[in-house]
Structures are given as structure tokens and as C-alpha cells.
UniProtKB/TrEMBL annotation:
It comes from Kribbella sindirgiensis. Iron-sulfur subunit of the cytochrome bc1 complex, an essential component of the respiratory electron transport chain required for ATP synthesis. The bc1 complex catalyzes the oxidation of menaquinol and the reduction of cytochrome c in the respiratory chain. The bc1 complex operates through a Q-cycle mechanism that couples electron transfer to generation of the proton gradient that drives ATP synthesis. Pfam families: Rieske. Residues 144-154 have a biased composition (Polar residues). Its cofactor is [2Fe-2S] cluster. This is Cytochrome bc1 complex Rieske iron-sulfur subunit.
């Protein structure tokens, strides 16, 4: 067995590998490759900071009196992430106040629509459907109850 070990070691020492010599990469090459990799990863990240969204309201939260919701308009309740509209006298609707385009909070209820100022999306007072802008989906409906002149998020 010792004889075979000697033959193998002799062969390895006396017969080096044939072919071109391979140089180790330089420090500059490694740093350039690392910088290019980091730039590629950074290019794949989402642009800008995500919108901070407050926690959803707990169930059965009193939003306010019906008198605060104008006919043909509405009111945004930012802490609860809900917008309540009154498209016609005595009919109240509620929707999420978060735009379906890029999750910005809607900014106003004016001129018969719910409006997001981030990119110009507009939604209908009656059903939250998209009326204009880049929003891909309607605003999701929220459940409310109206009793004794008060609106409650359920």
C-alpha cells in the first residue's frame, strides 16, 4: 500500500497539470463585480417610500352624525380609513379610503367624486367605481349602519 502511495505522489509532483496558467482575479475585478451586483439589486427595488397606512378601525366605531355628510358629497374619516358618501338624500355608502392604484389615501370628496390626488384617480359616490385616472379597481365597500342620526362603522 505504501508503494502505491509513493507512485501516486510521485506522479502528482512530477507531472504538473498542462494548460494555460490561471491568474487569480485582481481586487479591482472583484470590487467592480460587487458594485455591479449591488447596482442591479438596487435597480429592482420599488421606487420611493411606501405609504404609511394607519391600522384599520376596530368593529362598531361611531364615525359621526349623518348631518356631517352632505347630499351629493361625502366625508373622509382618515383614522378609520373609510369615506362615507350620501349620493342622494338619506342614502349613505361607505368605502375604503385607500386608492386602489398605489395605496395613497384619498384626499377629497368634491364635484360628485371621491378623489385621490396622488395620480388623479376618481371614484363614484354611489358605488366606488372608477370614474377616471389609473386606478385598476373600485374602492372596496365598507359596512356601516345608520341609526338615530349617527353613522357607525360595523
Amino acid at each position: 500500500m505504501a508503494h502505491l502511495r509513493a507512485v501516486v505522489l510521485h506522479h502528482v509532483r512530477c507531472h504538473p497539470l498542462k494548460g494555460p496558467a490561471v491568474d487569480a482575479p485582481s481586487r479591482r475585478t472583484i470590487l467592480t463585480g460587487a458594485a455591479a451586483g449591488l447596482a442591479a439589486v438596487a435597480g429592482c427595488t420599488k421606487y420611493g417610500e411606501p405609504q404609511a397606512t394607519p391600522a384599520p378601525a376596530p368593529a362598531d366605531t361611531v364615525l359621526g352624525p349623518t348631518a356631517d355628510i352632505p347630499v351629493g358629497g361625502g366625508k373622509i374619516f382618515a383614522p378609520q380609513q373609510v369615506v362615507v358618501t350620501q349620493p342622494v338624500q338619506g342614502t349613505f355608502k361607505a368605502f375604503t379610503s385607500i386608492c386602489t392604484h398605489q395605496s395613497c389615501p384619498v384626499a377629497s370628496v368634491a364635484d360628485g367624486t371621491i378623489n385621490c390626488d396622488c395620480h388623479g384617480s376618481k371614484y363614484a359616490l354611489e358605488d366606488g367605481s372608477v370614474q377616471g385616472g389609473p386606478a385598476p379597481r373600485p374602492l372596496a365597500p365598507k359596512q356601516i349602519s345608520v341609526s338615530g342620526g349617527s353613522i357607525t362603522l360595523t
